[in-house]
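Researcher: Please predict.
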Amino acid sequence: MADLPAYVREREPDAPRWVWDDTARWYPPLLAAGVRVERCQDLRLTHHLLTGAPAVDATLLAGEQSEHWDRLGPTVPGDPALFSADDTAEHLRADLEDARQLAAVAASPEAGRLGLLLAAESSGALAAAEMTYAGVPWRVDLHERLLTELLGPRPLRGTRPTGLEAVAVEVREAFHAPGLNPDSRPELLAALRRAGLEVADTRASTLRGLEHDGIEPLLRYKQLSHLFSTFGWAWMDQWVRDGRFRPSYQPAGSTTGRWASNGGGALSFPAQVRPAAVADDGWLLVVADVAQLEPRTLAGMSGDRALARSARGADLYQGMVDDGAVATRADAKLGLIGAMYGATTGESGRMVAGLTRRYPAAFGLVEEAARAGERGEVVRTLLGRGSPRLVADWDRDPDEAPADRDGQDRYRRAYGRFTRNFVVQGTGAEWALCWIADLRNRLWRLGTGPLDARPHLVFFLHDEVVVHTPADLADAVVTELEAAAATASRLLFRTLPIDFPLSTAVVRSYAEAAKA
């Protein structure tokens, strides 16, 4: 639709709700044409959310074309069939699906919460497209210098850099294996065993527990090899364009609603290359992360006022100490993490038992979620996202069961540990979605002109955001980050005051934020 940007630009001042099958399909061309959208309904994302929501009657989502919505996956940038005439999405009736979704939400006893979740999910999709469009400011010259210092000059395709090969030689010499390929797991396992090191795998965590002269260079090789293969020269060629790192985000890419990345490794790029993320001249990066997001989320969603009291201020764990719940900050952290991840033995298990008496609502919530998971039941986040069901129903399909009863019990307990964390991690993801949904609009109002001429989001990682801003607006951005966090807390937890303090750093380079 050649005149779509003009059509949207003309109507956007009236703040309509744009309804489309997939934000990743429709929004990038609008952004490229200089058109920014305030709100939308991403029918693909919301369809998948509603079909798994326990408080929704899924039969209300069934109807003409609904089976196609069930199968519709995210649009991938660069897909040659993106606008193909025979693409299934070309023939989907957005109006029919939108009407079904509205009816399903209206009929739910949790309509208010679900409506907030759908709005936040769709706004997150807009933010994801905007971050890909704007990109993280990236200095290719600095990245190349870092790679050269660590790995040596750029190698020919299919060969190792000289620096990496030199470390490989150290590994071969230490293990007396002149033909060893350190990238080959079978060869490496054989070399370790010949050296008297009986191990089942070659993971770095396993290797660190071994004593041998070859372990140090081997660990160094693994670190450098990972850098070369995932964030080396080939990565720059593919993901950095026009001085910007442009990853492809996938909102709700995990079952909990957390984002994933379709490419570029945006959710895991390492400290070695962060010095290359440098703000433009006259601009700065504002980096903000939430302190102890998931424990604070647990306090809010459970309504545990004692834990909420401990959460006031910058350090929830120290708040638990000051409240007399535990003797040390380390004990507080051990107990809370144990409760959220299912620690039942050792020191963490003992801490959980004691803290359950102190914070019964919070610890009882995750415990009940675990028991529900073990029974094969669906659990839900605060706003209503449902967990996936237990994979095997052994009562109806015994062939799917592990061979012994103990195996079945272990499987159910493992699933219970998943549902225990699902409710907290998923609600934390909802808080973060509401945070960036409000923040993107606040940032837009700070400036004038197109998106990338104003303060704008360039990075999001679960509980951390990076904003690229004109230097003279950096203080205003910090204020809006904090205001958006307060808004997210009010939206989710309403009358229970829960602090979500931010650690903020105003820097030129992303690497400087870790030192601030």
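Model: The chain has three domains: 1-134, 140-237, 296-426.
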